[in-house]
Structures are given as structure tokens and as C-alpha cells.
Amino acid sequence: xxxxxxxxxxxxxxxxxxxxxxxxxxxxxxxxxxxxxxxxxxxxxxxxxxxxxxxxxxxxxxxxxxxxxxxxxxxxxxxxxxxxxxxxxxxxxxxxxxxxxxxxxxxxxxxxxxxxxxxxxxxxxxxxxxxxxxxxxxxxxxxxxxxxxxxxxxxxxxxxxxxxxxxxxxxxxxxxxxxxxxxxxxxxxxxxxxxxxxxxxxxx
Length: 204
Known about the structure:
Helix content is about 65%, strand content about 0%. By secondary structure, it is mainly alpha-helical.
């Protein structure tokens, strides 16, 4: 396999691992030890890999569409153990995308300040780290189940809109497919904008 492809897979796997650990750790800080007891508060990829989402789907997406997409096993947590019962779900949900944005920011600043200006290949790799983490953050903030954005939305919706939540959850698979194949391209300008803001470099 192409070395760039393998490196991209590695970046994706570590990025989704950081994403999931952040969910579990934020829940732990708010009083729920479910993820810790399950051995999921670790950056060891073996504890988080999902065969379909971490290997099969990324390979198929890359070969068929030219982009990398995937996921890890969701970190378990018990919302009833959270100290903040009102917005605890939203905080745990936001922790994942926030961690990806933080990774993108850290590595993006290395590009902005030309830390590796004389190492072309390394700069390209760092750009890929920024792109993948921005994609994960943006995608997961879309407010449809089971993405993190839906949990944020549901935590602020009045109870009278419970039927809306149930309908979204009922058709979540179709909504996800629609987003992946039709809506995602419309979000590319946002990805390009954030990339420029963080790195100071145009995303080509």
C-alpha cells in the first residue's frame, strides 16, 4: 500500500481515539467512571478500534471517493452518574470535537509559524493531521444521531420536542448516508476557512 495512505490511516485512528478518550475523560471528571472501569481511558488504539469503522470503511472511502472517513467504538458512559444532569450530556458530547479542534490548532500553529519549513514531507504530514481533525470536529457537530451534535441539540430542546428526537433517531442511518454522500461537500468551504484561519495556508 502507498505510504501516504498508511500514514493517513494512522492519523485517522489516533484522531478518533483521542476523540473517544475525551468523551470518556470528560464523563469521568463529572463523576462517571464507566469508561475508566471498561479500560477505555487509554490512548492504546487496540482498546478503541472498531473493525468496520476504523479499518474497512476508511479503506473503502479512500479507494472509492478519495477521502478518509471512519470512527472508533463509542466510549460508554452513564449519563445518570454525571454531576451536571441538565447539560452533562452536551458537555461529554462536545469534548470529542473539542479535542479534535485542539489537535488541529496545535499542529496548525506549527505550520503557521514555519516550525518545519525546511522539512517538506513533514509539513505535508502535519497538514493532513490538521485536515483530518477538522473533518472529525465538523462532521461530529452535525446535529443528527448518533453524532455528538445531536446530543448537544437534544440537551437544549424542550421536552415537548421529544417526538422530533425520536424521529431523528429512527431515521438516523438514512440521515447519516444523506450527509456523507450529499451534504458533506457543502461543508467543505467551512473546512477550508478553518484551515486557513489556523495555518495561514490555503487548502488546495
